[in-house]
Amino acid sequence: MSTVTVEQADDVATIKLNRPEKLNALSDEMVDAFFAALDAIAGSDARALVITGAGRGFCAGFDLSLAGDGSGDPAFWARRQERFGSLVTRIRNIPQPTIAAVNGAATGAGLGLALACDTRIGSAAARFSSAFIRVGMSSCDVGVSWLLPRAIGTTRAFEMMLTGRMVEAEEAERIGLIMRLAAPEKLLEDAQGLAQAIAQNGQIGTWMTKRGMWANLEAGSLQAAIELENRTQAFMLGTGGLAARASERGFLKKD
User: 58, 103 in Cβ contact below 8 A?
Assistant: First the structure.
């Protein structure tokens, strides 16, 4: 059985992490399968992507049964660390907007995967924890130290990362870690509905919006952000999309 499954309906692709007996904890093979799925979707005609988990968990992070691998070899662990960490940037960099449908625990690296998505919807069973610090590691891992404070602010991010406590679904919604809550049986439907709403917009404009938003989260000033926006809009104008949409909707002046 594949540890990562991919489905596509119309313009929406869905990746499901599929090790339910392990709460979808990540093994090396599972990370490789995740990369392959993302690469396939990036080159497909899908317009949006939903990421979720099978069973009771979204992703329980690194599979701790593998903690003894490599006999403590620093080079082995450095390669593994870089491979796991680059999964976060791969999710961020694919052209399709991504929605995490968080159906259960998203802990450790699972928190990083959820944060790597452009937005998140959770069920009442969704739970989040920066669990690294509770297993003898630092909470600065797989992008969490960059992504979490941008999602919820530095005050709350420090508290989550320093304690490693579990944030339950209602609190996660209140602090902006997830966009909204959905009934467990409606979670995937709601996430796919949001993905379909995104897919109705122009493909290039959607892609440029995702790229521009992430780029401007790293911009050094408001003026730098506006400069990027101006050039993006000039590029988009050259595609002819604005005139076509305006004509379709009857806004263009007639000679």
Answer: yes
Task: Give the mean pLDDT of 112-125.
Answer: 98
Q: What is the pLDDT of residues 239-249, one digit of tens each?
A: 887 777 777 77
- Only one residue has tokens 């400069």, namely 227
Q: Residue 49 in 3-state DSSP?
A: strand
Residue 253: inside a domain: no
| Parallel/antiparallel/unpaired status of strands 127-129 and 167-168 | antiparallel
Inter-residue contact 109 to 26 (CB < 8 Å) = yes
- The structure's pTM equals 0.93
User: Domain of 243?
Assistant: 203-248
234 and 166, same domain (yes or no) = no
Find tokens 């809009």 and name the residue.
233
Alpha helix stretches (DSSP H) within 129-219: 144-152, 154-163, 169-174, 187-199, 203-216
> Same domain, yes or no, for 213 and 127?
no
The dihedrals phi and psi of 39, each to the nearest 5 degrees, come to -60, -40
The predicted pLDDT at position 254 comes to: 66
Q: How confident is the model at residue 230 (pLDDT cuts 50, 70, 90)?
A: very high
